[in-house]
Amino acid sequence: MSNSLPPGEPSITTPSSPTVTTTAIERTSTAQAQTTKAKISKKASNAPSELKIKKLPSVEELRNMIPSDGVDIRDLARKLNISDTNYWLFSELIKMTCDIEIRAWVRPLPTIPSPFALMKLYQAASKPAVRRELLENQVIAAELQGDITITWEGHTELARGASRILPESFYRVFYEDSATLTPYVSKHTHPKHRGRLGFTMSDKVAFQSIGTFSVSEDFTRDRIERQLVWNQKKNPSSFVSASDSINVAKRRAHFHSPDGKSNRIGVRIAIARISTHGLRPVTIHADLKETIQNIGKDEFGLDTLEDLSTEIRPVQIPAWIHEDALSGYHDATSMTLEELEAAEPEIWLSITELRHCNLKVPATRGHDYE
Question: Most Cβ neighbours (<10 Å): which of 183, 189, 234, 359?
């Protein structure tokens, strides 16, 4: 997900059926802020009973693959072809069974975890998060707080970077009725934007979300879950969707064609190919504060919010940012939130990666490719 792709002269055609067109993509950036409170859908969860995890070797097999004097975790990750479904489990197994030295070097510990500890780990890795059920008059206020730091040289990030998780390209479908702003669709042909006095595009941005973006407010379970609800007008999303497969993008383009099933039919349907060259895996470390609030009325009939319960828990959120944001840090291994925002990097999130981390994004049907 990102809201920064470069404008320019797009090579877009207007055929009667969708045509895939490719535009050159270069890195750009935006950093904006917005405070939002996400209302959670009360739809029944359609989460799977278990998350699909690419098979890993047993603990004994894993230890046998590591020489007694150690191995570079990047070499181990490449050998095992770590994926976006098992990176978290692999990382936890390494922490439980190895001594992690000098960032990338891992050496097997003399003892292995108990069968009970391993069973709990595998259960936690395969258990999907589900949607929370709220009453009609309840909302959730969520934000990241505490010392928010971003790391890129930990064993988890090194393993993700050495694997084949990142595809060569992302793909985004757009047309003249897309809610997301883009200079590839002119103001005069976009029916929703034509009459908007505030129609503005940030410089060097090719796709711009309706909602403004803040790491502390938007990198929460509830804002990400909000992004996965199509056609919702409330609490505008501050993310821009893309897929990891051209075939998924083609299906989406056909969905909005006259032969598709969408209620919103496009005339100028196109697919942008977005290069992932230069993206580096990072982890965002923070405390997630989630407060369930009750909406009431005061004596004057105005809305009031009453805090019912609050939970604060540590989270480690996987993301991908462009290496230019890290170029000035040399031997450093982390940055603060303020430093990240000052760099104004392009930031991408993988829904599949998020479902397997402790942010606990619900694993409902679809969006595995996003």
Answer: 359
46, 86, 161 from 164: Cα distances, Å: 29, 12, 8
Burial of residue 183 (CB within 10 Å: 0-12, 13-18, 19+) is: middle
Nearest alpha carbon to residue 5 among 169, 249, 218: 169
Q: How many helices (H) and strands (E) does the chain have?
A: 10, 10
Interstrand relation of 270-275 and 303-322 (parallel, antiparallel or unpaired): unpaired
Do residues 252 and 287 touch, judged by C-beta distance below 8 A? no
pTM of this prediction? Answer: 0.82
> Tokens 């230069």 correspond to what residue?
278
Q: At 60, is the pLDDT very low, low, confident or very high (cuts 50, 70, 90)?
A: very high
CB 185 within 8 A of CB 174: yes
Max Cα separation, the chain?
A: 72
CA nearest to 30, candidates 339, 346, 360: 346
- Range from 78-87, 185-194, 289-298, 323-332 carrying the lowest mean pLDDT: 185-194
Do the Cβ atoms of 309 and 292 come closer than 8 Å? yes
pLDDT for 322-361, tens place per residue?
999 998 887 788 999 999 999 888 899 999 999 999 998 8
- Of the two residues 263 and 43, the one the predictor is more confident about is 263
Q: Which residues contact 74 (CB under 8 A, 6 or more apart)?
A: 104, 158, 159, 161, 162
**What mean pLDDT is predicted for residues 192-205?**
65
Query: What backbone phi and psi angles, to 5 degrees, belong to 175?
Result: -160, 180
Query: In whole angstroms, what is the distance from residue 228 CA to residue 217 CA?
Result: 16
Going by C-beta distance under 8 Å and a sequence separation of 6 or more, which residues neighbour residue 138? 292, 293, 294, 295, 308
pLDDT in tens, 350-361: 999 999 999 988
Distance of CA 167 to the CA centre of its chain: 15
